[in-house]
Amino acid sequence: MVPFVLPLLFFSFLVGNSKGLLQVGFYSNTCPQAESTVRAVVRDAVLSDPNMAAVLLRLQFHDCFVEGCDGSILIDNGPQSEKQAFAHQGVRGFGVIERAKAQLEASCPGVVSCADIVTLAARDAIVMANGPGYQVPTGRRDGLVSNLSLAADMPEVDDSIQVLKDKFLKKGLTEKDLVLLSAAHTIGTTACFFMTKRLYNFFPNGVGSDPAISPNFLPELKARCPKNGDVNARLAIDEGSEQRFDKHILNNIREGFAVLQSDARLNDDIMTRNIIDSYLSPLNPLFGPSFEADFVESIVKMGQIGVKTGFLGEIRRVCSAFN
Questions:
Q1: Residue closest to 135 by CA, chosen among 318, 300, 317
Q2: Given pLDDT bands bounded at 50, 70 and 90, which one contains residue 4?
């Protein structure tokens, strides 16, 4: 199946304090093979490991939410590096980004940023999971700071809906963006480590399960993540559609089949619940919003958080180290 491509009619964004521009085709003259190189590396990675599509999508989210979309999560500078933060547990995909960077350094040295590679890789990963294709504004530069203390405000799996909304708002993202970017959990898996509290210690006295879990789903979750079992065991986040990018997860959330606690919380708020319902209307997609088009709008918007452009930052030679 060839995914449809959503054109971006006008995608040059003035960012930061007017010191630079992001634009579609930023590398068209300086490194015309930039996007095709990243695409080929991502394709090989996902064909080798289908879960890598979700891994690369998650990597962009975690990069952008700390210090902006600047490749700070890629730095490996010891125990204080950002990637060591508790909130980044399980984040992977660094090797894929480095492979793409190495190829680009061989053909276009010092031109393509690691931050842009992360953003392009997420887009190509979505396409590999049968999601929508879209144009990515590029021109980001790599950040000069990476410290685990800066990841303190990352959204957490056990955040309340109000905390989640507040954290997204601080990044310039709306309730609609919260729903759509959470729906990226339609692909991939999670570890039982992130399920223990929800399944066995949900209430303040340390007992009980999240009542938002459907009673038809709770026994299955407990069987996959038994108490005192292997916390590294993995299960699909979107039960029934874990390797296909679609809006199936929104129906799971509405029906009490959300795996992650943070996804389930989207049903706790009338605003986010109404947004979910708008994509699940019997008349959708003939009438009403397009999930794919709106998701693209949200992820492109997220990709502009705190970008460094112009003379800010640097273009790293290796993504895991500052120049």
A1: 300
A2: very low
Catalytic residue among 62, 88, 185, 248: 62
Query: Rg (Cα) of the chain, in Å, rounded?
Result: 19
Question: Which long-range contacts (C-beta less than 8 Å, at least 24 apart) are formed by 206-215?
Answer: 210/261, 210/264, 212/256, 212/258, 212/264, 212/265, 212/267, 212/268, 213/256, 213/258, 213/264, 214/255, 214/256, 214/257
Answer whether residue 140 shows pLDDT above 80: yes
Report the C-alpha gap between 120 and 36 in whole angstroms. 10
The pLDDT value recorded for residue 143 is: 98
Two structure tokens written together for 98: 């480095």
Q: Please state whether the predicted TM-score (pTM) of the whole model is above 0.90.
A: yes
Residue keyed to tokens 């991502």: 42
Report pLDDT for 146. 96
- Mean per-residue pLDDT, 163-173: 97
Write phi, then psi, for 50 (nearest 5 degrees). -55, -30
Mutual orientation of helices 291-302 and 175-182 as an angle, nearest 10°? Answer: 100
* pLDDT, mean of residues 307-319: 96
Pairing of strands 20-24, 137-138: antiparallel
Residue 19, pLDDT score: 34
The two structure tokens encoding residue 17:
């304090």
248 labelled catalytic: no
